[in-house]
Automatic annotation (TrEMBL):
Keywords: Membrane, Transmembrane, Transmembrane helix. Pfam families: YdjM. This is Hydrolase. The chain crosses the membrane at residues 29-48, 60-79, 91-110, 122-140, 146-173, 194-210. The keyword Protein biosynthesis does not apply. The keyword Repeat does not apply.
Amino acid sequence: MANFTTHLTVAAIASTALATFGFVGGLFGFGTAVFCLAIGVIGGLLPDIDLETSIPAKRFFTLMSLFIATLTAILYTAYQTTGTQLVEQALMVWGGAFMVVRYGVIGLFSHLTVHRGMVHSVPYMAMCGLFAVYGAFYGFGMTAKVSWLFGGFLFIGAMVHLVLDEIYSVNVLGLKLKKSSGTAFKFFERKKSLRYVMLYIIVFALFLYAPDYQPALNGIHALVQTFATRTI
């Protein structure tokens, strides 16, 4: 499997390229581009949430928790009226969000999951992307378009991670597969068939009740059309 540095570097390059492409093409503004880049990098390391034995992973998850907590505090203050206790409230929100993400969500996942288990699967990452859509839309009150873009960047970053692990599972010089082949990028496991069925049901239900994806799809289509026209 690829190491932490490789995942971080490739995820950052891919996310930067996509965010720049979207910003230059007018799909979103500079602020959204920065958040998309950061979310893409998070997605690029998200499948290793079940590997907290790694020191770089621990450091990254701490930074990710700080980022999410800061974003939560910023969005909280944006929707509040000015007052003498606004700063204190924002700090409490920041601290609460950090504890929930770092020691609640990430801590629980790393404790309950096995490395290269269901977390290293396409449907699991699709579920995480949809959670990001729900969080942005219902939690932070963002538009459906931006919410789907955030979820999309998270999912694409995760796919970059899974593909990298599969590439590293091939012994190119010996032209043979390593034992780890097929454990990173997968859609289903017979040994865990019931769990995967439940996972797909959750993904379907989340997609069914998610905000309208058409604005994001229209924006991406217009972006592709614009660049295609310029190329021709």
